[in-house]
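for the writeup, i need someone to sanity check this before i put it in the appendix. the sequnce is what the collaborator sent (i think, or maybe the updated version? ugh). structure was predicted straight from it, no edits. if anything looks off just tell me and ill rerun, i have time this weekend
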Amino acid sequence: MRLIRFGPPGAEKPGLLLPDGWRVDASGLGMDYGEEFFGGDGLQVLTDWLSAHQQKLTTVDPDARLGPPVCRPSKLICIGLNYADHARESGMAPPREPVLFFKATSAICGPYDDVLLPGRKTDWEVELAVIIGPQAHRVTEEEAMSHVAGYVLHNDYSERNWQLERGGQWVKGKSYDTFAPLGPFWVTPDEIPDPNNLALWLTVNGKRVQDGSTSNFVFNVAQLVSYVSRFMTLLPGDIISTGTPAGVGLGMNPPRYLQPGDVVELGIEGLGWQRQVARRAYAEREK
């Protein structure tokens, strides 16, 4: 099942992407894709509602904005250096344990929204993100996948100046508004039989700069869910973003960062694609 949210920022409604490509409105369900949905029997309720309303479904205007396909979660947890090739291009060894950092949930936006450039070193990172279903606390690796509700495409934008040159706290460089586009849809686990073997890519102005596979994870999805749950309770709808492969701007020689007007496109096998146009966050102050 592929699930979407559509409408203006802050007023998105839940919907579905049907197998035939039609988008339909699911707001009649009376439940958005948030903690209540992921923590209970939301998918079954949705399935039953869909079956009962099959002949009365309302289609979504094809020009309607797609927002992030999940409501703002309690936590957006990111994994650093989870591909050996990305660790190398960053000048670091692959970690012995997963590297964790947070990204402010206010950074979450839609898959086709513009990305704002708050500084001069804004970078890109295509990532597979995992959505938590039932609450997870100190779960084993064997139990971990039963706590996964689905998967979604994430672009983990970073302002490298703030991340690396302003006190060494990654969260500062990761949390600016628009720095966490999600979508265009999230999918249930039956759509992704093996999340640890997915192709993922990213282009800047049509040039492919990232071209990898989740088969190159240092730590796989089950390991990450289990590991993170040892340090904090994962609530329904929480997101774990699993890291990025080589090809980020920071790793180029010389480094290459986004400029106003640049177009970033990215995708993951089975999870669709995104497109963002870069623009200055403070253009009005630079006049």
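The CA atoms of residues 93 and 123 lie 21 Å apart. The first strand starts at residue 2 and ends at 6.
thx in advance!!
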